[in-house]
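User: Structure please.
Assistant: Input sequence and predicted structure:
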Amino acid sequence: METAIAEITHLKKSFGTNQVLKDINFKIEKGENLVVLGKSGSGKSVLIKCLVGLFEPDGGEVLLFGQNIAGLNDEKLNILRKKVGFLFQSAALYDSMSVRENLEFPLRDLKSKSKEEINALVVESLNNVGLEGAIDKMPSELSGGMRKRVGLARTLILKPEIILYDEPTTGLDPITSNEISQLILDVQKKYNTASIVITHDIECARLTANHMIIIKDGVVLEEGTFEEISESKDEWIRSFFNKRKE
């Protein structure tokens, strides 16, 4: 049996007296989209920072590609991180660089690749997000949804095995949000990537989740498919789904 892409057991993380993560457990298999649902401030972003070693947990274990990241030096951790793609809430593009230059930036260490090969990778990544026509535009010329797409193209250029989406639809109108959710599915299908989608957008969760966990007060309150969780009898969980029906 294949090793899980990521596995977290009894994860704990505090900042001073604020215990953000008290006991988090989950695992994600290759090709699976895991949605982590929770209200703002519930520790969702802290969770993914622990997953890639940006925060050191106070307790518990984080396995990434079968390796316990607690025991890794910086060099080994960086090798693992190269298999991980991030799509940040803001898309985090460099405003002074064109779309082409933004996409070339992650490839700067690939000395073995010619200009033609790098250009082919840039074009392929933009094709994957439907934005090949924007290659010479500046980020300021793009809409919020287009910036997210370029951010995703830049993530895809290194062919990651897992992608972490941090609030991918925040600040977008419903139609653009649905387009980004569809893009998450397209990427999963084309590359067989695993994804962790951090969100409080119930519609994004419905469209993208193979599997879901809901975090409240630092623990996993519920785990299952979207359909299973939407039938929950817990009033707090139902509040997410009731908003969708209003």
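The mean pLDDT is 88.
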